[in-house]
Write a structure and sequence with these properties.
The complex is a heterodimer of chains A (about 180) and B (about 160). With about 180 residues, chain A is an alpha/beta fold. Chain A has helices spanning about 1-5, 10-25, 75-90, 105-115, 130-135, 160-175; strands at about 45, 55, 65-70, 95-100, 120-125, 140-145, 150-155. Classes of the chains: A alpha/beta (about 180), B mainly alpha (about 160).
């Protein structure tokens, strides 16, 4: 009897691995956490989308908890998440956009069509700020605390109620930090 | 093999040979050694946007940006390790096809070693158990055995049973 049970060990191991791999397939995340989590938002000096003469830098992101959304007019998922970004702005979340690898005219037309929830938008036509942030596709969203440190990262559209609630909870959490 | 079949096979092999990875742009380096390091790095780093492609194989925009940055850093005189670290700092450990030993990656090295150790343990147990099963006969038993073998009479059965006891 004991010996028979020993013979079943390989089968049991196989079944356990099969369950593990099968469930991993179903739960594979779309995105990975940014390598920049816990680090200061990278330094940059780029023009504002609305006004090429206005130069923006890292000081834009200190003093208040800010949600930085990397978007582009060529990105279909960015259209999908615009209403949710507007909802976040309406709830008092401060939003800053990074217009990623995009033309100024196309980007402004996009904001004209879908509304502009951003307090300011950084124009990053070459994608060099995106590269520093480790962005590999739009949209991506970063939560930056009042000290300018990246605290949360979301890859892909913020298109679910769940994602919005997570963002709101994080904003609240980092606002309460001294 | 028939002649057309050989021809078809030769054609397939020729096509295979020409379908080598071609996404890497031809980049001019003053020093050919830099060019070699560039190709090696591009074939070792993983595209963060693609499930399983090197930045050399991928034509995703981010892979192009990364190749460009690798080339720029090489021209800057940075070492391979510095270039890898530069990209890992931005895109995470994910971009390394050759991950470093770290708390998150130790199972990659630990599991095979543990399996070998478990195998050795099981083998040792089996060998010991088998060794234990062969119990040598004592001097009296051997004597009795010799006696039984040399004898062939009805009483032998009873004696044999006794020896087996």
């Amino acid at each position: 009897m004991n010996r028979r049970l020993v013979l079943l060990i390989p089968l049991g191991l196989f079944a356990a691995l099969a369950v593990l791999f099968w469930s991993s397939l179903a739960t594979a995340p779309d995105g990975r956490d940014s390598a920049r989590l816990g680090e200061a938002f990278p330094a940059f000096e780029l023009p504002a989308l609305a006004d090429p003469a206005r130069s923006l830098d890292r000081s834009l992101l200190t003093g208040r908890v800010t949600l930085v959304n990397v978007w582009a007019s060529w990105c279909a998922a960015c259209r999908v998440e615009m209403p949710q970004l507007a909802a976040l702005a309406a709830r008092g979340v401060r939003l800053v956009g990074v217009n990623y690898k995009d033309g100024r005219a196309a980007a402004n037309a996009f904001l004209g069509e879908f509304g502009d929830p951003f307090e300011a938008t950084i124009h990053d036509p070459s994608g060099k700020l995106g590269f520093e942030l480790g962005v590999y596709g739009a949209p991506e969203t970063f939560l930056v605390d009042a000290q300018g440190v990246i605290r949360y990262h979301h890859v892909g559209a913020l298109d679910t109620e769940e994602a919005l609630q997570v963002i709101l909870a994080r904003v609240k959490q980092w606002r309460s930090q001294p | 093999m028939s002649r057309p079949l050989v021809g078809a096979l030769a054609l397939c092999l020729t096509l295979l040979a020409t379908a080598s990875p071609a996404a890497v742009e031809v980049r001019a380096f003053d020093d050919p050694a830099l060019g070699e390091r560039y190709v090696a790095l591009a074939e070792e780093l993983r595209c963060p946007q693609c499930p399983n492609q090197t930045i050399a194989d991928s034509d995703a925009p981010i892979a192009g940006d990364m190749r460009e940055r690798v080339a720029a850093l090489l021209r800057d005189g940075r070492s391979d390790a510095e270039i890898r670290d530069f990209l890992v700092a931005r895109f995470g450990e994910y971009v390394r096809y050759d991950p470093r030993p770290a708390p998150r990656t130790w199972p990659l090295w630990g599991v095979p070693a543990a399996l070998v150790a478990i195998g050795a343990l099981v083998l040792a147990m089996l060998v010991r158990r088998r060794a234990r099963r062969v119990v040598p006969l004592s001097a009296t038993e051997r004597e009795r055995l010799a006696e039984l073998v040399s004898r062939d009479e009805p009483g032998a059965t009873r004696d044999r049973l006794e020896v087996r006891r």
